[in-house]
Amino acid sequence: MQEQIDKILTNFTFGRKEWTEFEGADKKYRRAFTNFEERDKEFVIQVELPGVEKEDINLSVTENGIEIKAEKKRTKKSKFNEGYSYTRSYAGFYQSIAVPSEADLEKIEASYKNGVLTIRIPKKSEAKNKKTIRIK
């Protein structure tokens, strides 16, 4: 039944599925909004992670590219009349990004400011990728 509901919601949002499963059926993460830009000497990736602190972000390099996972759970306790009220919130984001072969994954730099993670990946030097062949 859940698959049918997901299919209906996917069709309703014109094929754009906002939630994706990761690490089992009990955890759902929202796909983070991402901007990928190629510049002369580097690739710049910007990922929106609203409501998440820098400490809650896990950025890793995999054989397929870059994997970004962020998770923030909050519980707020408030006094309400003669008792207490608890408000819980959850923000979970996941994004896997394939990077071009000319990206130098050994020299990645990342910064986080105002809910936006910025990843800078320099391009490999052309001299390293270029091989001169002697003609006989």
Structure description:
There is one protein chain. By secondary structure, the protein is mainly β. Helices cover 11% and strands 50% of the residues. The protein contains 2 helices and 9 strands, in the order H-E-E-E-E-E-E-E-E-E-H. A hairpin with a 2-residue loop joins strand 5 and strand 6. The longest helix is centred in the N-terminal third of the chain and has 11 residues. It is elongated and about 90 Å long. It starts with a helix and ends in a 7-residue tail after the last helix.
CATH architecture level-2 label of the largest domain: Sandwich
**What's the CATH first level of the largest domain?**
Mainly Beta
Residue runs with pLDDT of under 50 for 5 or more positions = 11-21
Characterize the main sheet: 5 strands, mixed
Q: pLDDT average, as an integer?
A: 79
Order of helices and strands: HEEEEEEEEEH
Q: Write down the Rg.
A: 21 Å
- Share of residues in helices: 10-25%
What form results from the Cα inertia axes? Answer: elongated
What are the main properties of this structure?
mainly beta, elongated, five-stranded mixed beta sheet, 2 helices, 136 residues, single chain, Immunoglobulin-like
